[in-house]
Amino acid sequence: MATGIVKWFSATKGYGFIKPDDGEADVFVHIRSVEKAGYTSLAEGARISFERKTGSSGKVSADNLRIG
């Protein structure tokens, strides 16, 4: 499981980005993954654990989120 901080997230737009601790590119996070984890939003700067998921288009997104 990867870790990082929430770079920014907009519940209104329904997405945001996580800056991973490993220095890789920022990871997209969709509101569905946030809601699936039991949250309604993510606070900027929050520590987060996540799994990278590669979609059919080849784009990487965050899933299985855990705050803290």
From TrEMBL:
Compartment(s) where it occurs, according to its Swiss-Prot or TrEMBL record: Cytoplasm
Organism: Bradyrhizobium huanghuaihaiense
Domain CSD: 1-67
Pfam families: CSD
InterPro entries per UniProt: Cold_shock_CspA, CSD, CSD_CS, CSP_DNA-bd, NA-bd_OB-fold
Protein name per Swiss-Prot or TrEMBL: Putative cold-shock DNA-binding protein
Alphabetical keyword list: Activator, Cytoplasm, DNA-binding, Transcription, Transcription regulation
Main subcellular location: cytoplasm
